Amino acid sequence: MGILRGVATYNSIGAAYADTRRPDPRIAARIHRALGGAASVINVGAGAGSYEPAETVLAVEPSAVMIAQRPAGAARALEASAESIPLADDSADAVMAVLTVHHWSDLEAGIGELRRIARQRIVVFTFDHDVSRGFWLLDEYLPEAAAFDDTRAVAVDRLVTLLGGARVEPVPVPHDCTDGFLAAFWRRPEAYLDPRVRAGISMFAQLSDDVIQPGLARLSDDLSSGRWHQRHAGLLDREALDVGYRLLVADL
Fold it and tell me: What's the distance, Cα to Cα, between the start and end of the chain in Å?
C-alpha cells in the first residue's frame, strides 16, 4: 500500500487544493461561532487558509505548496509544523486547527503547542472515526481506506483529554457542501469518480491506485445500474448528514 504522509501529502495535492476545497459558509459559521469573538486567532495546520476568520493574525503551515495556495490578503503564513511552533506563549486569544490533527506526527506535542500559544480558547475541527468509518463510501467500496484511517484517525476522547477538557459538537455536512473533503459528496456519489475531486482529498493522495480503483469501479457500476440509488434512497431527500465531523471547543 503506497502511502504519503504529512507535508509530503500536501505538497502532492496542494497545487489543485484551492479548486475543490472552498470553505462551506455553513461550516465556517459554526467554526467562527466556536471561536467566541476572539480578537486574535492563529490557524495551525492552516493549508490554503480555509475557514480563517478576519481576526486571524497568523497561519502556521508546514507545506510551502499549500502556503502558495493562500489567497491574496490572507494572514501571514509561517512555514512550521504544529509540533514545534516558533511563537511566544499566549500569542493569540484563540487557536484553531481544521482537519489537520490526524496528519500530525506527534499529537501530544502538537496539542501541547496549541495550549501554549492560546490565551483563551482552542477550536479543533476533526472527525470521529467510529462514526465516519460507517460512511457508505468507506464501508461499501473502500474498506481498505477505512482500515488505513484506523491507523491515522485520532479518537475524539483522546483529543478531549489532551486539550484538558472540551465541548464536542457534531457538525452535519450539507448535501451541497462546497468544501470537497472526504464525506462532502455523501449525496453526490458520482463526484468520487472525478479525478479532480479526488485530487483534493488527502486520503486518496495517501493511497495507491491499486487500492482505490477496484472500489471506484464497483461504485461506477452501481451508479450505472441504479443499485447505489436503490440502496441509498433514504439519503436522497436529506438536507444534511452526520458523517462524523466534530467541533471541539476547549477553554483554557
Answer: 41
Do 69 and 14 contact (CB within 8 A), yes or no?
A: yes
pTM of the model: 0.91
H runs (alpha helix) in the chain: 6-20, 25-34, 64-67, 107-117, 129-132, 136, 143-152, 156-163, 195-198, 202-206, 209-225, 227-231
Domain boundaries, the chain: 6-134+151-180+240-251
Cell numbers standing for residue 1: 500500500
**pLDDT tens digit sequence for 145-191:** 888 877 888 999 999 999 999 999 999 999 999 999 999 999 999 99
Phi, psi (degrees; rounded to nearest 5) at 61: -150, 130
Tally the residues of the chain: 252
Best CATH choice for the domain 6-134+151-180+240-251 from the list 3.40.50.2000, 3.40.50.1820, 3.40.50.150, 3.30.200.20: 3.40.50.150
Q: Is 86 in contact with 78 (CB distance < 8 Å)?
A: yes
